[in-house]
Each structure stands twice: as C-alpha cells, then as structure tokens.
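ingest -> validate -> predict -> emit
validate: passed (alphabet ok, no gaps, 239 aa)
predict: started
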Amino acid sequence: MIASMSDARRAELGALSERLGVSFRDISLLQLALTHTSYANEAKQPVEHNERLEFLGDAVLELASSTYLYQHFPEMPEGQLTKVRASIVCSATLALLARHLHLGDYLLLGHGEEMGGGRERQTNLEDTFECVIGAIYLDQGWETARAYVLRQLEPEFRRVADGIVIQKDYKTMLQEFVFRKENQSVRYVELGESGPDHAKTFRFHVVVTGKVMGEGTGHSKKEAEQQAARMALQELTKK
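emit:
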C-alpha cells in the first residue's frame, strides 16, 4: 500500500510536479518515489517504499543517456562512450540535481533517518532522483521519461559537446580551482563506512575553507573523495 496522502500533501506534490515539468496522471506514484525505506519500516501498517522504483529509474536513466550519447557523438568509440556516461551519470551529479529540485524536502523519512540528516544525504538524494524517473516512466511512458532525463542532464551533455575532456582527477581539479585565491583550504572528512568487508561503501565530505561543499560515496576511500570533489566543483562553478 502506498503511503496515504492528506490534502496538504497532495498540494505539495502538485507543486513538485510543476517543478519537475511533469503532470502526473497518478500522483500516488510520485508519493511512492519519495517514500524512503526507513519510513516504511516505522509505519504502523504495511507501506510500500521506493526501492523498486529506484531499480526501474536507474535502467531508464542509463538507456536515455546511452542513447543520447550514441546518437549525438557518432565518432566516439565504445570505450569513451562508457567513460563519458559514467562521468555524467554519477552519484555526485544525480545528488546535485536532486538538490536543485529540492527533492529532499519532500522525502518521507523515518524518525532516525530524519534526525540523522537523511534529507541531505547524498545516497538518499541520488536514489530519490532515480525513483522519480521510475515514477515518471510508469505514469507517462518512455518518451516523457526520456525527455525528462535529457532535460535534467542537458548541462552535462553540453560540456561534452563543447569538447571539455571528462577528467577523473577531480581532487586535483578542485585543489587547483580553490588555490587560485589566497588563504583557501581543502580537506576531506570521512563520515563512515557501511556494508560487508568485501563490498564496503565509504562516505566523505569535502570541506572548502571551513564550509562543506560536497559529499561522496564509493567502494574505496579514494573513489568517495573523488565524488565529493566533483560535487564541490559543480557547486563552486555553477552559474
């Protein structure tokens, strides 16, 4: 059962639908996309959560972005297409897009997740962005979902079209950007780790001159730091 909605909640989701640029036929699908597992686990009666929508949205996101790159960059070899897609459709980018859409404000969270800063957690935002794509696909079909994905990723695709090289060493890029000014600093703070020993996930903040500018996750500390640096660069260079 999808979490029940008050009139006020329906109005909130209607406003979010307008921000997304999608007129939902079944607004309960958007409610489902915003229902975190922690909320479902604490509910007094069985409530569906959004993990299955995340699975669907991830597939739509990958196909839409892959198709766009294949069609618009015919000279790009398979290996480079894969690298470019991975650079565009990454945790930091999706979380940043979710923040721009204020998706965290609409999440239904359990008490512990709420108190633990779940509305701003990168993994929650990334997952919710994919869940919304899944909801759009179920409600509107492939063409609308594809158009939504391309609209959201348009700045990233434009970077590729402008010939900007997709670089992997975001930590170096961030350091060079920040140190253009005097008395600036960059440091990485480990937030924790989760998962079994053979498949751990690490979380890091990057702090630029005393201010948290990005959060990253990865299966190694280096990967998590790189993702945090990427998010910080996007925040520092966005118009």
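The beta strands are 186-194, 201-208, 211-218.
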